[in-house]
Write a structure and sequence with these properties.
heterodimer, A: alpha+beta, Uridine Diphospho-n-acetylenolpyruvylglucosamine Reductase, domain 3, Alpha-Beta Plaits, 3 domains, 8-stranded antiparallel beta sheet, 5-stranded antiparallel beta sheet, 17 helices, 21 strands, 34% helix, 20% strand, globular, B: alpha+beta, Vanillyl-alcohol Oxidase, Chain A, domain 3, 13 helices, 31% helix, binds flavin-adenine dinucleotide, oxidoreductase activity (chain A), FAD-linked_OxidoTrans_Type4 (chain A), FAD (chain A), FAD-bd_oxidored_4_C (chain A)
């Protein structure tokens, strides 16, 4: 034991090894290294211990021990998060759910799947395919990210406009509280008794409990899906085209926009046949019965031409449709190839503000001397500006962060928000005060306390600590400062 | 169109200072919802806080699919505005004679037949402004489709019956009106209907309603005209459905005007796994007579009408129905009737009860907002 009464690394490792295979109690730096960051590798930290329990009982016991000694716990799925939400705490335990990777049950009649948290997002749809079903939310990271991480971040994907976010598709979770107790939130009905705690847990970034099982709804695979791809000479025209589709009462399954930098990067990466002369590209997918898709696809084509599209192409086969999406879904790594590093932002704006935001962003881009490429979930207003930079140039990451921060503040200014799907984590904690006032942030803290009075679950993330609020307990010796300190590493590849 | 925000804040601040309970209401169209904790309001020092006059649509952008309205705005008013742009409140909440307000609808989380397909009022909420139990005026979420900054306090108001805050303003997603809608019917016993409706929902067809009532399975199809027509033809041939002519079944279902909602006695609501077997026979077996029952939401929502409960038996009945609900992987509420000073909602386990109390404490530390409306202990 250390002087503070907390077990030191070796003692804690011994305690865990009493009930967990010692191979999965990782206390040495070398083996811990892969856990030092999530997808946002500019933020990293080494933990005290990484532990990979295999049973619910083991998770509960880890939580009880950490609770007893007030040791921070950071739950971890696949580590693809983009807000440093899964970044370790230097005095804490990383609780990896990687071994909880079983699909427990698929009920084809009820159209539900019961899953362990470490199941990969795409694996759900793959397993459901034999029943003609799939899981709706499809983050671009779906090959790797886990359903537990999706719950924690309320993840979205390119099909969210029509099929909703994680919060719309999750029915129930089993959660272990900070004290190590098991509780079930939600039910297999469409609502449940008492307060809607599912709403609170979804998107809570591992700050309120550790999710150990999830029941999600599955959807029937549409009979047909087809994409209209259109190039435009201006972003404004592309934005208007989106508005025209929605105003006509058509809700596309996916509606994505890319700007010229993103088009070029994605085309070089995926050979999707994107029009390289366009300033903006729209991918509009319609799905449903064959009749519905045929009826609407014609109209969408018309709208795009009326709005001055410079090129319009309809996917003629599944292969063509897949190719069109491949470019979009690999846009992040593709941009990663045209620049040493990139930094992905995640603001949401009212769609009508798109042209204004992009213009302002171009001005800032010139001001900071940093290029920016944009991919945009145009249907639901979620903008991903990718700032291109070189981490080896001294001061460039700091400049990038400042630029990014201003983009998010701009999003709030035009009526939007600082994060549409990636979460706040450690990364956007400074921008929280652009979107919320002190009373609102204090309210978040009280809700956090309702679940985690000592503040040991993922401390320092999600909700900024108010400078002058003495009433909020902080961990004895942890980094709950208003501006958390982070080391900056090489930015690397995000995927 | 009136903005009474400042008055509402004042009233909550005063009640907080004096530690006196507030009974929050809009047009009081859902007075039946939840418990009736106060036998004697004067004695308990209860005052009414009304959002009825706090009305008006603040913004509506059809191309953004987003509307923002003050708490007391009626659904009828919202629908009229949406109608001009061929848009709808996709959650199809009941109107209660034109009296239902948007905040009351959210607080009771009431949604109509399309709920399994297009989502509930809870699903459509994008943001709220609310007054917490200490009189602070707060804003959560926003007017955009996606927002994961901070906890989703807005969505948590759904079904909270005003126990966590006075909702003053709501932003929500709206959807285009489907191009075409039609109904199908088929005579079928309940347990077969439950299986069939779930099978149909597993097929990729434009289904937006599946309900069983009095030996009839009702299916509603909405969407692109060609797609609906094709499904009508194929399901009629395959299963023997009749196309409903000129009926207002779906309207009556949405607005809770069918006899099962208006008869006398007690009305129980089960929210369960959609494939759970018919609950009426099982309820019968516990010794409670079922006089009418309706299965909505493709099997997920079951309404059972029973004779008025006797006060001294109510808790035993609730407990036995709770066991049935739990077997069906869901929960039960005594929706209407009975002694509403007793518990009417499913008992929560101790951990969940503690979390509920903590959340209530976090939002309303003095316990002045609709105390006892959801559970006696919060
Ligand atoms: C190339 C790329 C593309 C992406 N595209 C998208 C996209 O389209 N849409 C989108 O929404 N996101 C996207 N993301 C972000 C990321 O994939 C999602 O946030 C994802 O949900 C994270 O899942 P994970 O399993 O990797 O979680 P992690 O990164 O391991 O963890 C994320 C957060 O969840 C918490 N957590 C994890 N598991 C649990 C649990 N069981 N209980 C409690 N808390 C837990 C962690 O503490 C952390 O705060 C992308 C990321 C990359 C790298």
């Amino acid at each position: 034991m250390s002087q503070s009464g907390k077990p030191d690394r070796q003692t804690l490792a011994r305690l865990f090894s009493e009930f967990i295979d010692p191979e999965y109690v990782i206390a040495d730096e070398e083996t811990q290294k892969p856990y030092e960051c999530d997808g946002l590798s500019m933020y990293c930290e080494m933990p005290l211990i990484v532990v990979l329990p295999e049973t619910l009982k083991q998770v509960q016991q880890v939580m009880k021990i950490c609770h007893q000694y007030q040791i921070p716990v950071v739950a971890r799925g696949a580590g693809t998060g983009l807000c440093a939400g899964a970044m370790p705490h230097k005095e804490g335990v990383v609780l990896s759910l990687a071994k909880f990777n079983q699909i427990l049950d698929i009920d084809p009649l009820a159209r539900t799947a019961r899953l362990q948290p470490g199941v990969r997002n795409l694996a759900i749809s793959e397993a459901a395919a034999e029943y003609g079903l799939y899981y709706g939310p499809d983050p671009s990271s779906q090959i790797a990210c886990t359903i537990g991480g999706n719950i924690a971040e309320n993840s979205g994907g390119v099909h969210c406009l029509k099929y909703g976010l994680t919060v719309h598709n999750a029915l129930s979770v089993e959660m272990i509280t900070v004290e190590g107790e098991r509780v079930i939130l939600g039910s297999e009905g469409l609502d449940s008794a008492g307060l809607d705690l599912m709403a609170l847990i979804t998107g809570s970034e591992g700050l309120l409990g550790v999710v150990t099982e999830i029941t999600v709804r599955l959807l029937p695979v549409p009979e047909k899906a087809q994409v209209v791809m259109a190039g435009f000479h201006t972003v404004q025209a592309a934005g208007d085209a989106v508005g025209a589709v929605i105003a006509a009462g058509i809700i596309p399954a996916g509606l994505e926009m890319m700007d010229t930098h993103a088009i070029h990067a994605a085309e070089a990466f995926a050979n999707a046949g994107y029009p390289l002369d366009a300033e903006a590209l729209l991918l509009c997918e319609l799905d449903g019965t064959t009749e519905e898709v045929d009826q609407y696809i014609e109209r969408v084509e018309q709208f795009f031409l009326q709005q001055g599209a410079s090129s319009v192409q309809v996917s003629g086969s599944e292969a063509e449709r897949a190719a069109m999406w491949k470019g979009r879904k690999s846009a992040f790594p593709a941009v990663g190839r045209i620049s040493p590093d990139y930094y992905c932002m995640d603001g949401t704006i009212p769609r009508s503000q798109l042209a204004r935001v992009l213009t302002e962003m171009q001005k800032m881009s010139a001001e900071y001397g940093l290029r920016v490429a944009n991919v945009f979930h145009a249907g639901d207003g979620n903008l991903h500006p990718l700032i291109l930079f070189d981490a080896n140039v001294p001061g460039e990451f700091e400049k990038t962060e400042a630029f990014g921060g201003r983009i998010l503040e701009l999003c709030v200014e035009v009526g939007g928000c600082i994060t549409g799907e990636h979460g706040v984590g450690m990364e956007k904690i400074r921008q929280m005060s652009a979107q919320f006032n002190e009373q609102e942030i204090a309210q978040f803290h009280r809700l956090k306390q309702a679940f985690d009075p000592a503040g040991t679950l993922n401390p320092g993330k999600g909700i900024p600590v108010l400078k002058h609020c003495q009433e909020y307990r902080s961990l004895p010796s942890s980094d709950t400062s208003v501006m958390p300190l982070t080391h900056h590493h090489s930015a690397g590849d995000h995927s | 169109m009136k903005d009474l925000t400042l008055q509402l804040i004042d009233q909550v601040c005063q009640a907080y200072q004096q530690r006196t309970p507030l009974m929050i209401q809009g047009n009081n169209s859902k007075a039946f919802a939840g418990r009736t904790p106060h036998k004697n309001k004067a004695k308990d020092n209860v005052s009414t806080l009304s959002t009825a006059a706090h009305t008006g649509i603040i913004s509506y952008q059809p191309v953004e699919l987003v509307m923002t309205a003050r708490a007391g705005t009626t659904l009828a008013e919202l629908r009229a505005a949406l109608d001009e742009h061929q848009q709808i409140l996709a959650f199809e909440a009941p109107d209660f004679d034109g009296q239902a307000t948007i905040a009351g609808t959210l607080a009771t989380n009431l949604s109509g037949p399309a709920r399994p397909w297009t989502g509930s009022v809870r699903d459509m909420v994008l943001g709220t402004r609310l007054i917490n139990g200490t009189g602070e005026y707060l804003r959560f979420g926003g007017q955009v489709m996606k927002n994961v900054a901070g906890y989703d306090v807005s969505r948590m108001q759904a079904g909270a019956l005003g126990t966590l805050g006075v909702i003053t303003e709501i932003s929500f997603k709206v959807l285009p009106r489907p191009e075409y809608s039609t109904g199908l019917t088929l005579e079928l016993p309940a347990s077969e209907a439950i299986v069939l409706m779930n099978q149909l929902a597993g097929q990729a067809n434009p289904i937006t309603g599946a309900c069983w009532y009095r030996d009839q399975l009702h299916i509603r199809l909405s969407g692109a005209a060609r797609a609906v027509d094709k499904t009508v033809t194929s399901w009629s041939q395959k299963y023997g459905f009749q196309q409903a002519t000129q009926d207002n079944f779906w309207q009556q279902l949405q607005h809770q005007q069918l006899p099962v909602f208006t008869e006398t006695g007690a009305l129980w609501r089960f929210s369960v796994n959609s494939t759970a077997d018919d609950l009426a026979p099982a309820v019968h077996q516990t010794g409670i007579e079922v006089s009418d029952s309706l299965i909505d939401w493709c099997g997920s929502q079951r309404w059972l009408r029973t004779p008025e409960t006797l006060a001294e038996q109510q808790n035993t009945q609730l407990q036995s129905l709770q066991r049935l609900a739990e077997n069906a992987r869901g929960s039960v509420t005594l929706w209407q009737g009975g002694d509403r000073s007793q518990e009417i909602n499913q008992t929560l386990n101790p951990v969940l009860e503690r979390l509920h109390k903590n959340v209530k404490q976090a939002m309303d530390p003095a316990g002045i907002l609709n105390p006892g409306r959801l559970y006696s202990w919060m």
